Every structure is written in C-alpha cells, then in structure tokens.
Amino acid sequence: MNGESTPEVVEPPARKAMGCEPEIKESNLKRLRRIEGQVRGLQRMIEDERYCADVLTQISSVQEALRAVSREIMRNHLKHCATSAIRAGAGEAETMYDELIELIYKHNR
Amino acid sequence: MNGESTPEVVEPPARKAMGCEPEIKESNLKRLRRIEGQVRGLQRMIEDERYCADVLTQISSVQEALRAVSREIMRNHLKHCATSAIRAGAGEAETMYDELIELIYKHNR
Amino acid sequence: MNGESTPEVVEPPARKAMGCEPEIKESNLKRLRRIEGQVRGLQRMIEDERYCADVLTQISSVQEALRAVSREIMRNHLKHCATSAIRAGAGEAETMYDELIELIYKHNR
Amino acid sequence: MNGESTPEVVEPPARKAMGCEPEIKESNLKRLRRIEGQVRGLQRMIEDERYCADVLTQISSVQEALRAVSREIMRNHLKHCATSAIRAGAGEAETMYDELIELIYKHNR
User: Rounded mean pLDDT of chain A?
Assistant: First the structure.
C-alpha cells in the first residue's frame, strides 16, 4: 500500500488496549482493508450515477461490515480492558460500567 | 461521460439514477473520500493497538458519516426515481413502495 | 377525550391519514394489543427480578414488534399520503420528501 | 377493550437477576407503565386513523423509551451479574462475554 497519501485524521494522545490477540488484530485489519475497498467502490458508484437503491444497499453492506469489526473489538474490550478494570476494584469497575453503557447505547446503534 | 479509463471492479449490470444533482454528487464524493480516510485511520489505530473504546467511538463516527451520505442519496432517490415511478402509474408505484420499504426497514438500521 | 382510568398521552390536534386499508388497520391494532401484553409481561419480569439478559431479550422482541407495525404504517403512508402529495405538485412533493427523510433518518433507527 | 388478566406471554423457567437495586427496579416499573400507556395511545391513534407520520413519530418515541429501560437494565446487568461472572473465573467470564456480545450486537439495535 502507499503510505504517502493524504494526512487524514489527527488522533488524540494514544491510549492503548490492555490486550490484543494477534489473530483478532490481523482479521480486523483485513476486514478494514476490505471496507476501504468498498468505500472506494461507493465513490465509483456515485461518479457513475448508479441507481440510488443500489448505492443505498451497498452503503448498508459497508455498515454491516463495520458492525462486525466493532463486535470483535467489543469482545476484545470485554475480555481484556473491562475484565481488568472490573477485577481491579469498585472504583475502576464503576468507571468501566459508565464507559461500556456509553459505548453500547450512544455509539452502537 | 466518455470512458477514457475503464473501471477495474466489475459491478453487476449498472442501473442508473433517474436524476442526480451535481452539487449533491460532489458533496457525496467529498464525504466518501473523507470516510475512506477515516477507515485508513481505523487501520492505523488497530495496528497501534489503540484503546478499544477509542476505536469503537471512531467506528461509530464512520457509521454516522455513512448514514449522512445515505440520507442524501435517499433524498435524491425520493425526489427523482421514486417520484417518477409514483407518477408513472399504479404498477410502477407499487414496485417502488416495496423497494422503499425494503431499503428503509431492511437496510437502514 | 380522557379515558376513565389512565391519563396517558395528550395528543396534538389530530391530522388524519389520507387512506387507511381496513385489513391493515385491523392487523396493526391486533399487533399493538399483543405489544401491550408484552409490555405488561415485562413489568412482571421486573417485579420478579428476572435475569437481566432475559429481560433485555424480551425488550428487544417488543422493539422488533413495534418495528413491524412501523413498517406497515410506513407502507400505508407511502401508498396514500406520500403518493397523493407527490402527485399533487412540486411544492407538496418537496414538503413530503423532507417529512419522509425526517421519519426515516431521525425516527427510524 | 379492558381485559382483566389476559394470558399473554408464557415465560420459560425463570432465571433470577444477581442483584437488583430497589430504586432502579421502581423507576423501571414506572417507565414500563408509562410505555404501556403509550402503546394504548398508539391503539387509539390507529383507531382514529391518525396521520401516519404522527403515528410513526409516536412509535419512535416508544422505542426510545424502551431503549432507556434497556439501558438501565444493562447497567444493572454489568454491575451485578456480569461482574460476578467475570470475577468468578475464566470459564464463567468467557460465557458472560458471549452473552454480552449477543445482547449488544444481536438484540440492541
């Protein structure tokens, strides 16, 4: 892949995952590369003025693919970060419950 | 308009949109290029083993961005393709209702 | 105006549907009565302190049932109210597109 | 109309919550009684052949209300049932992750 392309997103100071299983990481990267390809496919569909319903169906398929990545990351989050916080004690656990509820109900629709 | 460079990905026989306003088309392309950048940003986050909750929040933001594109395309679809079918007569209208319901309730969650 | 026992929802001045097929109306009423029963079932589950995951699964099943009602009403809306507006002329049509987009993207998640 | 005690839902053998805070329980019951009222309000709207868009908006408001109950129950679930399982050991924890992922990604949309 070309690493020279446009600077896209500036991330805040990076917090790290507590644990990250190599197979999960690799499969998520693979999924995200496929999603990137799908998004480029969507651009071509728009350029070609493809039938709206076909574009909408394709967008929906990208959304499902993102949801599948999200699901794997949430599983990893529960298994490592959340478990570690919940086992650490009441204070850490309470903060983790808030964070999880926010993730599940605000961000995951 | 004229095919100087042929697209590489083979899509099914392309149905075309009935109408496509140039400003909408341009703004959707711009959004999709930004989404492509966000998806590459997600890949870097996974590579860097960034904190799961931050990745999940970022995925959710990509999903909202896709939803905004979907919204614009649906508006265009209603305005051009759906309106044309609904004005054409009962048969075309009926097929369009089915298609819309499928798009709204199956694909748009 | 007010039913004997429970003062629940005060509705704004009633706008009417343009058309309402009797079978659809009856089947929606039947579905909503079943949903009412499910909501009472949920109250009993909470009173009995039933296992949270079972309550959550039941809530999700009520939501799917509501979505099925919503789907039927949207179909009726497209077939009657939306079609009538779209055939009436550009002004009415434009107002209907806005309303539909609002319903689909704001209210239907 | 006002059936005394209609047999609605046959529940499977009841599993119990690990913990249930009395204020949460009371507030969830209150919310569910309000939701029951809203569902009866929806029945009246259908009977009166109210404007479809108004019915759809009201359905969406019931769904948001159910989502708020679901959110409180999920928080309770994390705090009591999930925490207990996660602290109990690897086997129980693993089963709980699966259950949570199922609840979050299959049932919560």
Answer: 89
Those residues of chain D that have pLDDT short of 50 are 1-4
| pLDDT, tens digit only, all 109 positions of chain C | 444 455 555 555 688 887 788 899 999 999 999 999 999 999 999 999 999 999 999 999 999 999 999 999 999 999 999 999 999 999 999 999 999 999 999 876 6
Question: Tell me, what amino acid is at A9?
Answer: V
Interface residue of B10, B44, B49, B52 to substitute, partner A, most A CBs within 10 Å: B52
Residue B99 domain-assigned (yes or no): yes
Rg (CA), chain B: 18
Q: Residue A90's domain spans which residues? A: 22-107
pLDDT digits (tens, 9 = 90+) for A15-31: 888 778 889 999 999 99
Q: Judge whether B74 and A59 are in contact, CB under 8 Å.
A: no
CATH number for A84: 1.20.58.1000
Number of domains forming the structure of chain C:
1
* A vs B: CB pairs below 8 A: 162
Task: Find the helix packing angle between B52-77 and A52-77, rounded to 10°.
Answer: 170
pLDDT surpasses 90 at A10: no
Read off the amino acid at residue B39. V
**Chain A residues inside the 8 Å CB shell of B57:** 103, 107
Q: Residue D5 burial by CB count (10 A; 0-12/13-18/19+): exposed, middle or buried?
A: exposed
Q: Considering the entire predicted model, what is its pTM?
A: 0.85
In a domain, A47, yes or no: yes
Give Cβ neighbours of residue B72 (< 8 Å, ≥ 6 apart). Answer: B24, B27, B28
Torsion, CA D104, CA B106, CA B33, CA A69, rounded to 10: 30
Q: Nearest CA of chain D to the CA of C9: how many Å?
A: 6
ipTM, two decimals: 0.85
d(CA A96, CA A88): 11
Partner D contacted by A78 (CB < 8 A): yes
Chain A residues with CB-CB distance to D109 below 8 A? 109
Q: Nearest-CA neighbor of B74 among D57, A56, A58, A61?
A: A56
